[in-house]
Design brief:
Length: about 270
């Protein structure tokens, strides 16, 4: 039950972060569309000034419409992901949130070492309990070698006259014990004991296997988290470099545009 609850929580968390990623991608596409609209307007003005050609305008228009189509697709994916909260205890309104910025930092959390994370896994706890149950089966099998002792007793009143029915002389009681033991079973009890021991050894091996797989899983996830953090740092530097290149190019273009337009008018004259 705890394992199922953890699985559902993990699935919900994965879907939630996927939804936030879709929102971030949607915001990025919206910002890209604004830039492409400005680029299209600039290209059209360059065409009127004789600097650009109709091919440049067509390419800018194509790029803008393609990005708009991508935005529609991402919006549909986000709506599909939002419906995943229906089977859970969360209502759809609980997942309403603001769009993430494309540069949102990854939340830092102290996850601890793998051995501490393993203590939170119900699959390990379940394997440990199955091993303990198999150990108890050995004791149950060994108890069959001992005799079965039954202790019985009874008491009450007995009289032929109703007037002396509950008087002392009419009271009676008895107490007795009985022990039975199977003398010959053709080795059945010994075989059942060996079977219980082998079952316990199998559960111990399975318990170790679950622990090893859990260690590997946790190590892989922690390594993946460290790699994602490194990738996020590199991507942040790439975005900063691209933004700087855009700013420099935009300034150079804005500074040279009046001279280009003036030269184009003089050529037409």
């Amino acid at each position: 039950m705890a394992n199922m609850d953890l699985s559902l929580q993990a699935s919900m968390a994965s879907d939630y972060f996927q939804l936030r990623g879709l929102d971030a991608q949607t915001k990025l596409l919206q910002e890209t569309i604004k830039v492409l609209e400005g680029q299209l307007d600039l290209t059209q003005r360059r065409l009127k000034g004789g600097v650009a050609t109709e091919v440049d305008v067509a390419q800018a228009q194509t790029q803008l419409e393609t990005t708009r189509a991508q935005l529609v697709m991402w919006a549909w994916r986000g709506r599909s992901s939002n419906t995943r909260s229906a089977p859970s205890r969360l209502q759809a309104a609980d997942l309403q949130h603001s769009l993430l910025s494309a540069r949102s930092a990854i939340a830092q959390d102290s996850l601890g070492v793998p051995s501490q994370l393993l203590e939170r896994r119900p699959d390990i706890a379940a394997a440990e309990r199955r091993t303990a149950a198999a150990n108890e089966q050995i004791g149950i099998a060994v108890s069959a070698f001992y005799p079965t002792i039954n202790l019985t007793g009874q008491g009450g009143f007995e009289s032929t006259h109703i007037g002396t029915w509950i008087q002392g002389p009419s009271a009676l009681w008895s107490l007795g014990a009985q022990a039975t033991e199977l003398l010959f079973d053709a080795g059945q009890r010994r075989a059942l004991t060996e079977q219980a021991k082998h079952g316990y050894e199998a559960q111990v091996s399975n318990y170790k296997g679950v622990i090893f797989l859990a260690f590997e899983d946790v190590e892989d996830q922690l390594s993946g988290l460290r790699i994602l953090e490194q990738e996020s740092t590199v991507e942040e530097r790439a975005v900063s470099s691209a933004q700087h290149s855009y700013d420099v190019s935009s300034q150079r273009y804005k500074g040279a545009l009046p001279a280009i337009l003036k030269c184009s008018r003089q050529k037409r004259r």
